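Our consortium's second objective concerns turning raw sequence data into structural hypotheses that experimental partners can test. To show how far this objective has progressed, the report includes one record in full. It was chosen at random from the queue rather than selected for favorable results. The single chain below, 191 residues long, was entered without modification.
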Amino acid sequence: GATAAPELASAEAVTIEDVPVEDVKYTIREDGTVTITKYIGQAQHLRLPAEIEGKPVTRIGAEAFYGCDGQQTVVVPEGVTTIGKAAFFHCDGLTQVILPETLLTINDGLTFSGCPNLMQVNLPASLTSVGDKAFSECPNLSLTVVAGSYGEEYAKRTGIPYEVVQAAASAAPEATTAAAPATDFEYTKLE
């Protein structure tokens, strides 16, 4: 992949690289969605693709990053609803994971377990399920959770240090977004 120019990198700002499709292994599910099954690239700070072959990425599969040492920042794209078991298990270099507002489930089975340098994770208000051991053996981790959310309940139940933030107006539970389609399509009619 491309590397950032040295003058762009600093302790304060990092350049997040968009992961090319060649750097991931994936499967296309029967419902037309994509599961990323393995990351095989070398980027330290990366954003996973939201679409592959024109289909939405909705899952990060089990063990997709298992044992990856070089990745420090991983941005999981909007549209992903599930992160599988041990997806980021023992990623020693991982310091930050950015989770999407579409995320519903972080499976049990040590999803982020054994990431000693993972410092901070925002649990989105959309979450409805997180395995109790998903963040085990992350001694430096602090969670940011939305007041009254499942994430706040999870942090209290597991004893992981956390900070509570108020929900954005658009994320209010009474918003009527449930009937909206999961994906908006844009198309251009070809003459």
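The partners drew two points from this record. The radius of gyration is 17 Å. Residues 1-11, 170-189 have pLDDT under 50 and may be disordered. Both points have been shared with the crystallography group to help prioritize constructs.
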